[in-house]
């Protein structure tokens, strides 16, 4: 026993060192990218980070807790609007709210970027809790339809609450705070928090709820509370990601947050393997990059897939076919439910190079 | 609000409600049997509208043939979707079926976008449906009368099929206990296919009438009606056919009347269904006529 404990301690320290080392390598790479790569590539890297953030938190509710949510586009919208409202300067607000002046306390408020992001996360999480209360009282199925409906409703609200959102004109002239460091910093933070959560007793409770809710409740797990907590947790990170996205594209309007976002994320978590954080990260990189690479099928000038001449929607056809095929024939995706660990990577190396003892 | 204005709005509300109801019946039947939210159901409305449109406008077929062809095509498509996308994963966790359903829905929409294009097309409504009758100051479009009659007939037919025929009894049994039903020697896939065919043809009937009422065809036209029809199905009590029609009527009337009373709220029209859904889930999750379905 004593020996095992010592061994675990050693592997734990080794894993920690390796993780820290790889993060430093990543940071060096980002530093290099920031200095040397063109702005298009940097933009893609920023997008990748935001999509990893979104996918990892989306995977928590869909894959780990097994509740089918379609809310990410709505949460993104809430986060984006909240943080944008709080970073715009009072003069800018006075200038852009031309249909109806902005609601009073909001119109004079202005916070630093970090605080606005925090507020975005908190507001989004609160909305998630409010939505979870009616939905999780009944079958989890309804979550899909309620969140899908919510995605539509949030656009309706954003179009109509003129004194808060400026209606269909949207919010313009946001300062492009989001850079590689913000995007990747938050991405690493999200992955860290999510992995810690999944490996905690809460995480095990979530998996129990996914496998068999009734059995989990019999073991003393409050399924309602666990589901609500997971939903709010993932909403927080999606809200902050929305804030980051808003300050990346610098102009937000209700029509930006279509179902397309949610669909992309769904593809990511399914391809990566529902329930695997590692899979989500890998697939987020693949799909975000693929989305750019496949752009040649459509017109070079388009951005989110809709509203263009030529053959828009080609990529989406491809993606929906992939989604259905993966669901039918390769349900495990890339990673299944397994996670990355240094131990398994080292094992793999050992098998490949028997002479070399790492 | 004056009297004739109220009546006029009532006519509009009933028409819209009937259309929601037709769509909701298909949702409720599939959910009742499979416990699956068939996200592609709303898109079947779009497909049926396009097929009818191409029949009339491009191939110059007489409208009754075009309409019947559209209904048959949509029914076939419904069966095909079930066999191709849902049947292989009937035994896996429910979330997989839901994801596949979203995939099918997105595939249909984007196929429409790529094959036909996103520009809205206007539907040439046959003369029979385009006039209107004026009673006093109330203007009743003939289409509304047809919608009402057709919905009523289809609803009665549907209830009769489910209550009286052998396959209807099999459907109801299947929604109670799938395993036992299979043990009784019933071919469950045949029953499920029939359910999909019936639901899809109702969606097609609704879709054709929908695009005569709102004659702008575009690939995403089915999304919002589909969502609202699901809300209608939940409102009436999911799994209950009469309930679905009733839920559709209530939702249609609510949408039209709320906007009529408070024109300022017209922007929020699409949000009404959502808030209705939240209220039902909070107060009576089984819906008006619903009973608790076994899992």
Explain this structure to me?
The complex is a heterodimer of chains A (358) and B (295). Chain A is mainly α and 358 residues long. Helix content of chain A is 72%, strand content 0%. Chain A has helices at 2-36, 39-64, 72-87, 90-96, 104-108, 113-137, 141-160, 162-165, 180-198, 201-211, 213-218, 223-249, 259-272, 277-293, 314-329, 342-352. In chain A, α3 packs antiparallel against α6 (113-137) and α6 packs across α7. Chain A is globular, with a radius of gyration of 21 Å. The two termini of chain A are 24 Å apart. The relative contact order of chain A is 0.15. Chain B has 295 residues and is mostly helical. Helices cover 72% and strands 4% of the residues of chain B. Chain B is built from eleven helices and four strands, in the order ααααβββααααβααα. Chain B has helices at 3-34, 41-58, 63-86, 94-116, 142-164, 166-176, 178-183, 188-213, 223-236, 241-261, 269-283, and strands spanning 121-122, 132-135, 138-141, 216-217. A two-stranded antiparallel sheet of chain B has the order 1-4. A two-stranded antiparallel ribbon of chain B has the order 2-3. The longest helix of chain B is centred in the first third of the chain and has 32 residues, at 3-34. The A-B interface holds A 62, 66-68, 70, 133-135, 137-138, 141-142, 144-146, 148-150, 152-153, 156-157, 159-160, 263, 266, 270, 274, 306-307, 311-314, 316-317, 319-321, 323-324, 327-328, 331 and B 35, 37, 39, 85, 88-89, 92-96, 98-100, 102-104, 106-107, 110-111, 113-114, 118, 223-224, 227, 230-231, 234, 267-268, 270-271, 273-274, 277-278, 281-282, 285.
């Amino acid at each position: 026993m004593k020996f095992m404990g010592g061994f675990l301690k050693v592997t734990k320290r080794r894993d920690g060192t390796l993780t820290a080392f790889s993060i430093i390598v990543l940071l060096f790479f980002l530093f290099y990218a920031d200095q040397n790569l063109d702005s298009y590539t940097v933009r893609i890297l920023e997008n990748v980070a935001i999509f990893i953030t979104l996918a990892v938190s989306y995977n928590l509710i869909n894959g780990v807790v097994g509740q089918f949510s379609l809310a990410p586009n709505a949460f993104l919208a809430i986060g984006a609007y909240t943080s944008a409202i709080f970073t715009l300067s009072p003069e800018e607000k006075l200038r852009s709210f031309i249909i109806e002046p902005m609601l009073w306390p909001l119109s004079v408020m202005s916070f630093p970027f970090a605080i606005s992001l925090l507020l975005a996360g908190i507001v989004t999480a609160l909305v998630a809790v409010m939505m979870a209360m009616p939905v999780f009282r009944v079958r989890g199925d309804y979550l899909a339809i309620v969140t899908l409906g919510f995605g539509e409703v949030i656009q309706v609200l954003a179009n109509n609450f003129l004194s808060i959102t400026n209606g269909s004109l949207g919010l313009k002239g946001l300062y492009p705070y989001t850079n590689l460091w913000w995007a990747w910093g938050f991405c690493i933070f999200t992955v860290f928090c999510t992995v810690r959560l999944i490996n905690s007793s809460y995480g095990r409770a979530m998996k129990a709820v996914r496998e068999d809710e009734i059995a989990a409740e019999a073991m003393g797990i409050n399924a309602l509370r666990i589901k609500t907590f997971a939903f709010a947790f993932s909403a927080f990170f999606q809200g902050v990601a929305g804030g980051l996205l808003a300050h990346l594209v610098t102009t937000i309007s209700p029509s930006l947050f279509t179902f397309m976002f949610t669909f992309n994320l769904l593809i990511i978590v399914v391809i990566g393997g529902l329930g695997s954080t590692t899979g989500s990260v890998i697939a987020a990189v693949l799909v975000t990059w693929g989305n750019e690479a496949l752009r040649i099928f459509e017109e070079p000038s388009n951005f989110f897939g809709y509203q263009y001449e030529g053959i828009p929607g080609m990529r989406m056809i491809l993606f929906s076919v992939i989604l259905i095929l993966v669901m039918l024939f390769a349900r495990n995706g890339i990673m299944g439910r397994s996670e990355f660990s240094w131990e398994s990577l080292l094992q793999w190396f050992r098998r490949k190079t028997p002479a070399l003892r790492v | 609000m004056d009297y004739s204005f109220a009546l006029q709005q009532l006519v509009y509300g009933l028409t819209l409600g009937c259309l929601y109801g037709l769509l909701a019946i298909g949702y409720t039947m599939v959910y009742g049997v499979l416990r699956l939210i068939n996200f592609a159901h709303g898109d079947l409305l779009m497909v049926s509208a396009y097929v009818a449109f191409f029949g009339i406008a491009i191939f110059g077929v007489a409208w009754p043939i075009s309409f019947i062809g559209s209904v048959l095509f949509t029914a076939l498509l419904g069966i095909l979707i079930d066999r191709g996308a849902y049947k292989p994963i009937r035994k896996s966790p429910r979330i997989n079926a839901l994801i596949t359903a979203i995939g099918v829905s997105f595939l249909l929409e984007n196929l429409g976008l790529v094959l036909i294009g996103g520009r809205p097309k206007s539907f040439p409504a046959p003369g029979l449906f385009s006039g209107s009758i004026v009673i006093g100051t109330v203007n009743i479009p003939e289409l509304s009368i047809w919608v009402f009659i057709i919905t009523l007939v289809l609803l009665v037919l549907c209830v009769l099929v489910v209550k009286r025929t052998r396959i209807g009894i099999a459907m109801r049994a299947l929604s109670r206990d799938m395993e036992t039903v299979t043990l009784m020697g019933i071919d469950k896939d045949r029953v499920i296919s029939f359910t999909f065919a019936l639901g899809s043809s109702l969606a097609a009937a609704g879709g054709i009438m929908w695009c005569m009422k709102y004659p702008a065809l575009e690939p995403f036209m089915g999304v919002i009606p589909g969502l609202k029809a699901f809300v209608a199905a939940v409102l009436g009590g999911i799994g209950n056919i009469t309930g679905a029609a009733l839920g559709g009527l209530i939702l249609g009337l609510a949408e039209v009347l709320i906007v009529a009373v408070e024109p300022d709220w017209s922007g929020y029209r699409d949000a009404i269904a959502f808030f209705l859904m939240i209220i039902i889930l909070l107060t009576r999750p089984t819906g008006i006529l619903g009973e608790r379905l076994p899992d």
